[in-house]
Amino acid sequence: MAESGGRAVERKLTIPVAPNAPMIGVKPLFADKNVAEGDPANFEVVFVTPDGKAQAGQGLRYELLKLESRYQWYRQGSSWEYEPVKSTCRVADGEVAVAADRPGQIKLSTQPGRYRLDVKEASADGALTSVTFDVGWYSEGSATRRTSWRPPSTRPNTNPARRWSSPSMHARPASLPSTCSATGC
Fold this sequence. Notes:
Blueprint: E1 23-28, E2 34-35, E3 41-48, E4 57-76, E5 79-98, E6 104-108, E7 113-120, E8 128-135, E9 146-149, E10 162-165
Parallel strand pairs: 2-8
Antiparallel strand pairs: 1-3, 3-6, 4-5, 4-7, 7-8, 9-10
């Protein structure tokens, strides 16, 4: 679109789209789509009619997929280039029951990395919702850092030591069942 002087004009228009089928809502119970290493990834799931009223959802399934990015190098002309190669690997799945009066719960233990949670109806053309989130070193998580300084030594050529600590640094790694191959996730 252009104005009479020929300059481009930008306009925005937001139009709500009314769904014609039930929808699935997934609410992460952690901040900023980041889970600290060692913390559980918890979600609430609701099933709503097109007019937004909660209803019971039977036969809802979830899949937790680990998202991997590897880089492939290649030579083009006289220079080296790279491109990302993205893959997914299912690491957990199950069913979630949703009642009309309360949301369903999904509780997952994860290792550091990037993940996608898919929640869908059992039918092939049913509703599907996805949420992407990061765990551990992919994110800042909920760790609080504290710094302490050791008093400087009286010996020449020595530096004071700095120590960092956070609650997640001392947590035991969570175990995650995996259906990946030895070269996968």
